[in-house]
What does this fold into?
Amino acid sequence: TLFRSTVELMRCLDTIWSSASTRPVNWQKYVAEHSSLLSLFFHASFYFIEGPKCLALKLLAYSFLPNNLLAEVIEAKHAEATTGSCTALPPDVLDALFTKDSVSRFLNVFLLEYNNQSIRAESRNIFHWMWFQASPQLKDLVFSLLCSKITMIPAYGRNSAEFFELLGFVIGDLDTSKVPPSVFERSEERRVGKEC
It folds into this structure.
């Protein structure tokens, strides 16, 4: 039955999460060798109900956990201080996963439309932590898509908090002088169009 399948899925994901959250370095090494897991979790998260969805997003986020947060996470979660450092995923893996359509859909569904704050927080973490590994082209894509959604923000009220946290980090880290002016022009055109 659907209920039984959901319970089994939750048990499986919870077991994986228990291991990944206490051994983040090992988890990243495993994901680097089995990158198809990223695609599975990323795409399946759109169809999971809330419980499995949150666990899948947590696992995705930890796949990108950067070195500068590793010690903090280990201390906060009483995780095992495994030797080594976080493993960066190959750029082609990231570029294949984070396409224009998939990023746009993900931002809409999980970072803006979803009412559960935990889901939005994990979605923010995915893009925040992935940013440290992203190629310049992928960074430009994410930044451009974030800018394109600014005019939609008033419709989401409090749901937009995590969106602005992510955008604030991106703007603070990105050298906007290297971003094509068209990115800002498109956002301004949308704003003016809505006011007319």
In short: The two ends are 53 Å apart (CA to CA). Residues 2-22 form the longest helix (21 residues).
